[in-house]
Amino acid sequence: MLALIAPVAVAQETRPKIPVDWSVNGFISSQYSYSPSETNTFFIRNARLDLKGCVTDYLEFKLQSEFAGGSVRVLDALMKCKFNKYINIEIGQFKTPFTLESQYHLLKKEGIDYAQVISRLSGYSDILPGNRTNGRDIGVMLYGGFIGMEEDYMLLNYNVGVFNGCGINRKDDNLSKDIIARFDIHPFLKDLVLSASLIRGTYDDGTNPDAANNRFSFGGEYKSDALTIRSEYVRADVEAGGAVTTTDGFYAVAGYWLPLQSQIKLRPVLRYDRLTAGGASSVLYMAGLDCWPWSHLRLQVGYTLCTEIPATASRHLFQAMASVKL
């Protein structure tokens, strides 16, 4: 018995606890915001840690948690079954495929904040009540692409999923499911994408467990090594108390990496951002700088002029954020 057990014990001691194709990642973002007579504060914007890896050549997983905000939350808990470039399956809790900008990692989007229409209509600070945060939901999704091009990209990419429609870490609160889909077309140019997405769903408004929650978006993006230009229009028709309310808006953002001689990366950013609800509009004009002095450190500053239509007094918002990634 000892002769049989000894080799097993030695193997268990020498085997690495984490396989080489697994990785631990994360980032921390500390932010300062100042708006005269309204805000003057430092706070921890994000503190995230994620574990991901490949179990086999066809099976991947990811587990990501957020530690900022006063409580620990599971953001991503997913598995991917990757069969080929045409069809794959993603199962668990993850970002829904609605809109282009919502797919961006926080360290890769141009500004400190998402555009208003993305934040309010893509599940971050959503117009619906409840735990609808971080643009994520629980469900299953098919994704892939068709019509391969010579430059090793697909002319058409698709993401089609079925979700609870209740946000993160929650079971469904009705008997219906949300259908969320996005279709991206690269019109014979890898750097250019035209995109359209939709949500056909329901939610419990307190009086009707199947109140309508229908949304759509369309837009495009040109992204090269130096220049990024993106714009989207997003609309939501949401039922509450038997009446349907429309909230819509659009944004346009541009950023350009300056051709510096040093290894420092510096990008000026401009954005126009408008959200309309109930006959009133909120319009934001943002100008900022995005700087990577080192590959693991990001510094951002931004100024936003906030105006309301019908006109009221304008507000000014100054922001600065430092992020470090593992």
Description:
The protein has helices spanning 2-14, 116-121, and strands at 22-35, 39-54, 59-66, 73-82, 88-95, 136-148, 154-163, 178-185, 192-203, 211-223, 227-240, 243-256, 265-277, 280-294, 297-309, 315-325. A hairpin with a 3-residue loop joins strand 1 (22-35) and strand 2. It is mainly beta. It is built from two helices and 16 strands.
- Uncertain spans: 1-15
Rg, rounded, reads 22 Å
Superfamily (CATH H level) name: Porin
Straight-line distance between termini: 45 Å
Compact overview of the structure:
The protein is built from two helices and 16 strands. With 326 residues, the chain is mostly beta strands.
Give the SSE layout:
Blueprint: H1 2-14, E1 22-35, E2 39-54, E3 59-66, E4 73-82, E5 88-95, H2 116-121, E6 136-148, E7 154-163, E8 178-185, E9 192-203, E10 211-223, E11 227-240, E12 243-256, E13 265-277, E14 280-294, E15 297-309, E16 315-325
Antiparallel strand pairs: 1-2, 1-16, 2-3, 3-4, 4-5, 5-6, 6-7, 7-8, 8-9, 9-10, 10-11, 11-12, 12-13, 13-14, 14-15, 15-16
Tags for this model:
Porin, 16-stranded antiparallel barrel, 2 helices, 16 strands, mainly beta, disordered N terminus, 326 residues, globular, single chain
